[in-house]
DNA sequence: TTGCTCAGAATATGATCAAAAATGGGACTG
DNA sequence: CAGTCCCATTTTTGATCATATTCTGAGCAA
C-alpha cells in the first residue's frame, strides 16, 4: 500500500521530489486512515519528529492539514489526538456517505470505460483474498482503494474530496472493528457495484453502493467502544 | 522564574488569547469567504507575513489549513492561489449543498428553540437592510451568518463542517457576482425558512432551503467569468 | 487541599538554503 | 536593420531548521 520509494530509478520525477511536509502528511494520513493510530491516541509534534525523522516545521504543517481534514482533533489546550467516534457521528457519516458516494457511483457508471472496470474488478479479487486470509491491513488498504478509484472516475473532484474526508473520520474505528471481529464479518457489495458498472445501470450501482455503505457503517457502529 | 500572576489587566493588548496561527487563519478565511481576495489571485507567504505583520510559521500553517479546506489551491509548483470556479464545479456544489444543508435545516427545525428562531429572524432583518442599501460586505457576512447559525442548531458537527467547507469554495465567486449585479438580484428564501422553523415543519424548511440554495448557486453560475 | 515551582512540550522568530519566476543580453531570422 | 526567441543571471519566494519564548500540567511543599 505504500508508494514505492525508489528514487534511484527516476531521478527527474517521482516521490522523492515531494516536499517534506507533503511526505509527512501522506504518511500520517495513511497511518490514521488504516488505523495504525488508535482512536483517542495522543499525537505529539516531537514524537512525530522523532518517529518520522523529520524536522519540526513539516510535522506542524501536516498536523494542521489533518486537523482541518477532521482526521485529528485539537483538544483546546495544545494537545492533539485521534478523534473517537460517537454513535451520533455514525448517523451523520451514514447520511453523508450515502448521498455523496452514491452520487459519485452514479456518475462513474456513465463515465467509466470498460478497461477501468476490469481493473477495478481485478482489484476486488485481490481484496477478496485479503478478506479470506484475514489480512487486515491489506483489506483496509484495498477496500479504500476500491472506493477511491471508483470515486476518481466520477469526474467530480469536489464530491470526491468530500468523500475522502469522510473516510478519514471512520478509518481508525474501522480498524478497531477489524481487530475485534476480523475481516470475515465484512460482506461487501462490490460484486453488485461491478455488475452495475458493466451494465452502465446508474440506479443499480447507486443501490449497491448504498447497501455497501450501510453495511460498513453498521459494522463501525457495532464496534464503537460502549462507554469506555 | 517569572513574575507572579497579574493576568487581570494586560497593558499592551486584549486579544492575545488565541494563538497567532489561529488569528491568521481566521483573518485569511474571512478574507476569502467574503471575497476580499479575488478568484485566481496569487497568495504568497511573504506577502501575508508583511500584510498581517506576523511571523512566517503562523502564516504557513494557516495556508495549509485553508488548502485543506479547499479555500486555496496549491498549484503544482509552489504557488498558492484562490481557486477559480468552473461551471462543472457549480453543479457539484449545488448537489452537495442541497443534500447537506437541507438535512441540516431539517434537523434544526426539530431542535431549534423559539428564542433562537427569534434571534435568527432579527438577523434576517438586518440582512434585509443590507440588501436594500446595497451593502455588499454586510450582505455577504450576514447571509453567511444566517446559514451558519442555522447549521449550528442541527446538532450535527460533521455535516455542519462539510457545509462550511462548501461555502469557502464559492465565497470568492459570490463576491464577484455581487460586484457585477449588486445585492438586489438576491431574493433569498429566508422568510420561508423562518416560517418553517416556527411551525417546526421539517419538510417546509427543507423545501425553502433547497430553493434558497438553488437561487444562490444559479446566481454564482451566472457570474462565472466566461473567458478562456 | 492549595499554591508555587519546574520540566517539558508547543508556539513563534529569523536565518539559511534551494528553487522557480522574472529579467536582460545576445544571437538568429525575416 | 528590427523583431523575436533563447539562455544565463538576478531576484523573489518557498522550504527547512535551530533556537528563543510561552504555555501547560504535574509534582512538591506548606
From TrEMBL, chains A, B:
Question: Does the record carry ATP-binding as a key word?
Answer: no
SUPFAM superfamilies, per the entry: GntR ligand-binding domain-like, Winged helix' DNA-binding domain
Which InterPro entries does UniProt cross-reference here?
GntR_C, TF_FadR/GntR_C, Tscrpt_reg_HTH_GntR, WH-like_DNA-bd_sf, WH_DNA-bd_sf
Keyword Transferase on entry: no
Task: Give any GO molecular function from the UniProt entry.
Answer: DNA binding
The alphabetized UniProt keywords are: DNA-binding, Transcription, Transcription regulation
Q: Which residues form the HTH gntR-type domain?
A: 18-85
Query: This protein's superkingdom?
Result: Bacteria
* Protein name per UniProt: GntR family transcriptional regulator
What is the species listed in this Swiss-Prot or TrEMBL entry?
Answer: Tritonibacter scottomollicae (Epibacterium scottomollicae)
Amino acid at each position: 500500500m505504500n508508494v514505492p520509494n525508489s528514487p534511484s530509478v527516476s531521478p527527474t520525477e517521482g516521490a522523492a521530489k515531494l516536499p517534506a511536509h507533503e511526505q509527512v502528511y501522506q504518511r500520517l494520513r495513511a497511518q490514521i486512515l488504516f488505523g495504525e493510530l488508535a482512536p483517542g491516541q495522543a499525537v505529539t509534534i516531537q514524537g512525530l519528529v522523532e518517529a518520522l525523522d523529520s524536522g519540526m516545521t513539516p510535522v506542524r504543517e501536516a498536523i494542521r492539514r489533518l486537523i482541518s481534514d477532521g482526521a485529528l482533533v485539537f483538544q483546546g489546550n495544545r494537545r492533539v489526538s485521534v478523534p473517537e467516534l460517537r454513535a451520533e457521528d455514525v448517523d451523520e457519516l451514514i447520511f453523508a456517505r450515502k448521498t455523496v458516494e452514491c452520487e459519485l457511483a452514479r456518475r462513474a457508471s456513465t463515465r467509466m470505460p470498460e478497461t477501468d472496470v476490469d481493473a477495478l474488478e481485478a482489484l476486488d479479487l485481490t481484496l477478496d483474498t485479503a478478506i479470506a486470509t484475514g489480512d487486515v491491513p491489506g483489506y483496509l488498504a484495498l477496500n479504500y482503494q476500491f472506493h477511491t478509484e471508483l470515486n476518481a472516475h466520477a469526474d467530480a473532484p469536489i464530491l470526491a474530496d468530500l468523500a475522502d474526508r469522510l473516510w478519514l473520520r471512520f478509518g481508525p474505528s474501522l480498524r478497531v472493528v477489524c481487530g475485534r471481529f476480523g475481516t470475515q464479518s465484512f460482506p461487501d457489495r462490490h460484486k453488485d457495484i461491478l455488475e452495475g458498472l458493466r451494465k452502465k445501470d446508474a440506479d443499480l450501482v447507486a443501490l449497491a453502493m448504498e447497501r455497501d455503505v450501510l453495511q460498513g457503517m453498521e459494522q463501525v457502529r457495532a464496534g464503537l467502544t460502549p462507554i469506555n
